[in-house]
User: What shape does this take?
Amino acid sequence: MSTRLPGSERTPMTRFLDTRLGTWTGFAAAALVLFGLAPLVLSGFRLGLLAQFLCYAIVAVGIGLAWGRGGMLTLGQGVFFGMGAYLMAMHLKMADARFEGGPGAVPDFMELAGIRELPAYWAPFASPVFTVAAILVLPTAFAVLLGLAVFKRRVKGAYFAILSQALAGAFAILLIGQQSLGGFNGLSRFRYFFGFTLADPANQRMLYFIAAAVLLAVVAVSLQLRRSRYGELLVAVRDAEERVRFLGYDAANVKVVAYAAAALFAAVAGAVFVPIVGIISPASIGIVPSIMFLLGVAIGGRASLVGPVVGALVVAWAQTALSEQFPSAWTYAQGLLFILVIALLPGGLASAAALTKRFRTKPTPVEAAA
Amino acid sequence: MSAVLTCKNIEVSFDGFKAVDGVDLELARGEVHFLIGPNGAGKTTLVDAVTGLAPYAGSVVKDGEELRGKKVHHIARKGIGRTFQTAAVFEHLTVAQNLDIAAGAGRSALSLLRRRRRLPAVVVDTMDRIGLRDAADTPAGTLAHGQKQWLEIGMLLVGDADVLLLDEPIAGMGHDERDTTGRLLHDIAADRAVAVVEHDMDFMRAFADRVTVLHAGAVLASGSVDEVAADPRVQEVYLGTAKEAADAARA
Ligand SMILES: Nc1ncnc2c1ncn2[C@@H]1O[C@H](COP(=O)(O)OP(=O)(O)OP(=O)(O)O)[C@@H](O)[C@H]1O
Ligand SMILES: [Mg+2]
Assistant: This one.
């Protein structure tokens, strides 16, 4: 079936997963692996790594929606990931300072930098409620405004990609210049997470569970969006934006929704990432990390639901395993991989199963008719 | 005759070149109105102007409302639907999904976020009308050429357009398909205004209620098929040459 989207070829497996029973089975299996198997077989250190990778996977689900279904090449998700991460990090630093130095204390890194007075914009982040609200609202609102400005002007394709990437670069540079946000070093050395001490392995495990739960939730939201009428409309906009306008829709609004959802996912991922990894700096949110996010999605299959998750995990794992042994080679390997996937397997790993099937077996008459 | 759509003195220029140069056009409910003219006469550009794609001078009024300056999707919501010279359906979606999207421009955000449980009646009826009921679950990209064009017309019907601007709807169709399309056009024109851009003169003679001939961006003649055919200027610039060419091609 040549007209199927890359990454959404019909195999008996995907057809089963499309049914209600299949959906529940899929989620149950994923939950079993994430909540049962992984904590059982992985050491605390490895579970922490997996938790970090799950954060990348959360970002990837959003990219799968915006890029795979909506055709928006979101090359700058580091911006939203970074917003979520810094907002969370600011709260953690504030909480630590309050806990250890009393109400008037400034975070430790400010003291070192000679900042004695707390900058006014830091003050509200003492409140956990404000922080969580800010993480959910600010990056999403920024994405809506940016999306409206860009999509109403019909900026798309490569122009949109370059714009998002430039934004990620500019955001990283902006942060490097902010001494009150830790500058080049970013924010690190967090001690407490909403009152729980981060040094405790039990709490670290809890953070892993939070990341896993968020990932499942984000996949569920993405699935609902894909199966809804909106999901069909999004594909229509991706394939023939002009045509959708002539049917009376404002295509820009359709795109903004997917773009904002992807931004929200990335922001939440960033917020969960910070207590897990213990540091956020401009280096983890600029152009290179943004491309990394995209790479995983491309490899896994951008149009499929689970492909981006698998791709993100594989790329993150490969980076950890390989970059330690061959730090310089990894950068090239990454670029090469990207080119190979785009050139040879545009549907990503998700389409590989269907591809090998097509090469190996002739379809049975029943399948051919289906 | 009560005009649904009135275009007055439409002018469209591309870098100083006037592709449409002072065209007046009235479309009335109940009529299949053919727009003919040689290649480059400005037919498609005129449709582009009316539907908000090409900026123009002049005025387009539908049901008493000026449409000039409105955005493409606003004009579509006013009940003006168009098809394109090259069929533009959503190839990766099924026939039913194509129609469901076309029927849904007025849907609330909440209903969009839900899954479609069953097809709206208007979608099912329209599939019958355009003969694609059996192809409901077929991806539109795999349809035959003619079927795609029917699907496009169907998409305008479910969207409740009452002015249809069809750009070469029978291009590439076989004889029987043309007949079917012609009858379909008359059927849907009962309570709508239908404008058809077409090169095929036999088709025009068989199905036109009214004809407007464009040449070099201007209206050369307008009236019934016989009136237009009798116009010597039309014979000179268009009908004669086109007919000869067509006859030669057929021979
Ligand atoms: N975007 C554009 N920029 C510049 N010139 C254009 C543009 N679109 C159309 N034209 C020119 O305007 C004139 C009218 O073109 P138009 O497509 O409206 O003709 P038409 O009557 O639809 O012809 P056909 O029968 O070949 O479809 C042509 O000379 C064409 O080259
Ligand atoms: Mg044309």
User: Anything to note?
Assistant: Chain B has a mean pLDDT of 91. Chain B is about 40% helix and 25% strand.
